[in-house]
Amino acid sequence: MNIKRKAELMDMLCSCNGVCDSNQYFDNLQNLGQDLKNSEDFIDITNFGTALASIERLIILNSLKEKDRCVCELEAILDKSQSTISHHLRKLERANLIKSYKQGNYTYYGLKKDQLQSFLIILNKVFNSA
């Protein structure tokens, strides 16, 4: 942040919160921002949110709650190409929301329900602790 913007912010913080020591208050706010950015819970929430940020991935997750499915089943459900499905599956795997396993010539994918529940617990903890 440039020096001019920092000075403007400190002036505003002083008047909007009745803070006498705007330097200390500004530093505290900056530290809070850094702590939140580095928070393991926030990193997990970001990965979770990124994985959910697609209608196709939400459909995949929803279809996997019923049973494990192979890519060809997901292609039929989504009416998308195998390469598109694989792209979405990689994002879901990176977020640790699904598992894969080989069965014969096919790779099947299943929902990691415990991990999904864990993300929901983290979201609840972070946003209900206020």
Strand content: 5-15%
CATH topology of the largest domain: Arc Repressor Mutant, subunit A
Main β sheet profile: 3 strands, antiparallel
Tally of alpha and pi helices: 7
Report the CATH superfamily of the largest domain.
Winged helix-like DNA-binding domain superfamily/Winged helix DNA-binding domain
Structure report:
- The protein is mainly α.
- 12% of the residues are buried.
- The mean pLDDT is 88.
- A three-stranded antiparallel beta sheet has the order 1-3-2.
- It is elongated.
- It contains seven helices and three strands.
- It has two domains: 36 residues, no CATH class; 81 residues, Winged helix-like DNA-binding domain superfamily/Winged helix DNA-binding domain (Arc Repressor Mutant, subunit A), CATH 1.10.10.10.
Q: Which features would summarize this protein structure in a list?
A:
mainly alpha, Arc Repressor Mutant, subunit A, 3 strands, 130 residues, elongated
Topology record:
Layout: H1 3-17, H2 22-38, H3 40-52, H4 55-64, E1 69-70, H5 71-78, H6 82-94, E2 98-103, E3 106-111, H7 113-128
Antiparallel strand pairs: 1-3, 2-3
Task: Please provide a brief summary of the model.
The protein has 130 residues and is mainly alpha-helical. Helix content is 71%, strand content 11%.
